Amino acid sequence: MTATKVFAHAGEGAWTPTPDGNRRRVLLHTDELMMVEFGFDKGGVGALHSHPHVQASYVAEGRFEVTIDGRTELLEAGSSFIVPSNLVHGVKALEAGRLVDSFTPRRADFLA
């Protein structure tokens, strides 16, 4: 069996500050797929950006204003969204909250 980590437990991993003032922790990853938890304080912004990775996100806690390719919707805990490759997207936390994002392929920049 490979040494790839295949399980993550609640609270594992250190939070890392993000350039936009929020925080993230990588939960699990392979070359093909990565799962990352993001934490936001109320009013926190994930600035508009794009990347070649396909992203699937789950709102684990809180309420967010999510913008994808110029379209904005309000999402609350239990909601989810997908960002196709290279589309401009971003979020604003309307209250403190957490997103769990999956990326394919993995975001090597999050491992540096």
List keywords for this structure.
112 residues; mainly beta; 6-stranded antiparallel beta sheet; globular; Quercetin dioxygenase-like cupin family protein; RmlC-like_jellyroll; Bacilysin_H2HPP_isomerase; Cupin_2
Question: Would you kindly provide a written description of the structure presented here, covering whatever features stand out?
Answer:
- The chain has 112 residues and is an all-beta fold.
- The model has no long low-confidence stretch (mean pLDDT 96).
- The protein starts with 15 loop residues before the first strand and ends in an 8-residue tail after the last strand.
- The strands form two sheets. It has a six-stranded antiparallel sheet, with no helix packed on it. A four-stranded antiparallel sheet has the order 4-9-6-7, with no helix packed on it.
In short:
With 112 residues, the protein is an all-beta fold. It has no helices and ten strands.
Q: What Rg, in angstroms, do the CA atoms define? A: 14 Å
How much helix, percentage-wise, in residues?
under 10%
Beta-strand fraction estimate: over 45%
Mean pLDDT: 96
Enumerate how many helices there are, as a single number: 0
> Main sheet, how many strands, which sense, barrel?
6 strands, antiparallel
The topology string of helices and strands comes to EEEEEEEEEE
Shape by Cα distribution:
globular
Distance between the termini: 26 Å
- Trace the largest sheet across and list its strands: 1-2-3-10-5-8
The number of distinct β-strands equals 10
Q: Which regions are unreliable across 5 or more consecutive residues at pLDDT < 50?
A: none
Pfam families: Cupin_2 (PF07883)
InterPro entries: Bacilysin_H2HPP_isomerase, Cupin_2, KdgF, RmlC-like_jellyroll, RmlC_Cupin_sf
Organism: Mesorhizobium robiniae
Protein name: Quercetin dioxygenase-like cupin family protein
